């Protein structure tokens, strides 16, 4: 007796629109043929897939592996839904085909499932090549004759967890290295050294602004002069802000992602003059090769001294500049602020110590001179 492919009433009530899409799909147009002709084991797997609240996809029929998935799987697909329904694996995931097709075939041939943790691959599901990570299982679905008719793929995306872990590591390294600060200059170089190990900030620069000659001076960067990335704008040692203002930098480009839309300022050079304005705390820049950067300004007043700094962060090409990314950059900037403040404090304390030492020396020399004079008078 064959099992019914019809979903039960509870499933219909919970997600009738999507489930109807699955059952109304013209499966006869695929290599699988109409649903009524499917093996009972496959029908049972479909019901289990659609009733689950966990992201599940069925890859059916080797070697083409046609896809059927539940509603919880849609966030994994992003803009690939609804195209992916009923399509072959290679059509849906051409960027992952070479990596995953052998694994699917291995599960089919051996009849043994597999599990992967934080598996990395570059997906193209939201208008750009995206760095993603997943925990997933591949489990065989057996027909009554013992052959494998489908692969049951249970999945959990762990991208944000992986990103959070590595970003926390960067923030923690700042805390571990704060005791190494010897001066303002050393603080800048330690900052660059920490950021040079961050996958989320492929390059970074610090400029100090001198408002009287109206210039910005490059203090530190994560790359050396012989290894300048070819995708960043010219980054001279000194930027003359008066000349910089005259450069054309007023075109904003809207970038759309599935979950966020943001505006980027199209730039051929660093728009430092914009971020040092009081009303413009940071700029999201779109560079000439479509890469992105965030430019921020910080003003630090301490010990009677005011420092204006401009921080430039390159953005990972494989990540969207979403809310979590901006929150990470905010934490980095807070740490940079602490390092710069400590650098200033240490320099001012060193100046005070030197001044006190000079005064004590002059005082000692004065009293020594008086003592000699008094002795000569007594003699």
TrEMBL record:
Superkingdom field: Eukaryota
**Gene3D superfamilies, per database record:** PAS domain
- Can you name this protein? PAS domain S-box protein
Query: Native species of this protein?
Result: Gigaspora margarita
